[in-house]
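look at this:
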Amino acid sequence: MLKTVFLDAGGVLVFPNWFRISDALAARGVHVAPQTLADAEPIAKRKLDDNRTMQATNDAGRGWLYFDLILDEANVPRSAATDEALAELYAYHQQANLWELVPDEVVPALAAMRDHGLQITVVSNANGRLRMLLDRLRLASSFDCVLDSHDEGVEKPDPRIFEIALQRSGATRDTTIHVGDLYQVDVVGARAAGLRGVLLDQKNLYADADCPRVRSLADLADQVARGVFD
C-alpha cells in the first residue's frame, strides 16, 4: 500500500513566474504574453529531456538552456535584449527563486493526499532557496521533509539523493513513489534507487513512456484516492 509520495518541486508544485518573465522581456522591447511562454514550456521541456543532454549538463546548466528552448518555441529570437532579461531573471532566481507560480490545484491536491494518510516529501534539484520559497508561498506545512539538492550536495538522477530522502523521511521503497516532470531525471533517478517513478506529463508528450503518468497534481491525488499506486 502506498504510504509516501516524493514530489519534485519545479514543474510539479511550482512553475516559473511567467508574468515576471514577460515583464522583464517587455522592459527591453521584447513582447511575449505570459500564456504564450507557459504554453511553450512543456514542449521545450520535452526537447530538453534527452539522455545525452542530461548526461552532459547539471541542473543549473539545464535551467538556462530550458529558457532558451522556451523562447525558441514561443518564436522569440535570441538577442542582446533577451540575454539581458534572462540575466536579470537569473539574479532574481538566485535571491528569491523564480519558480514562484503555484497552480490553483496544488494546495487542494496536497490536502487530499494528506487526508488520505500519506506522508509527502519534496525531493528537488534546486539552488539552496527551496525551503525559503516554500515558506514564502505558504506551502511548507504540507510536507514532512524537504530536500534541496544544493544543500544535500547531490542532485537527481543520482540515486543517492533518494537514499537520503528515504532515510530522512523514514519511508520504505516498496511503499513510496516519486513524481517528477523529467523522465531522465525523475523516473530514471527514482528507479536507480529502487523506487517507482511517476511522470507528470502535462501535455501528453510522453505517450510511449514506460512508466505511470499523471497530467497534474490534481490527477495524481485522484489516482492516489482510487488506489492506483497501492
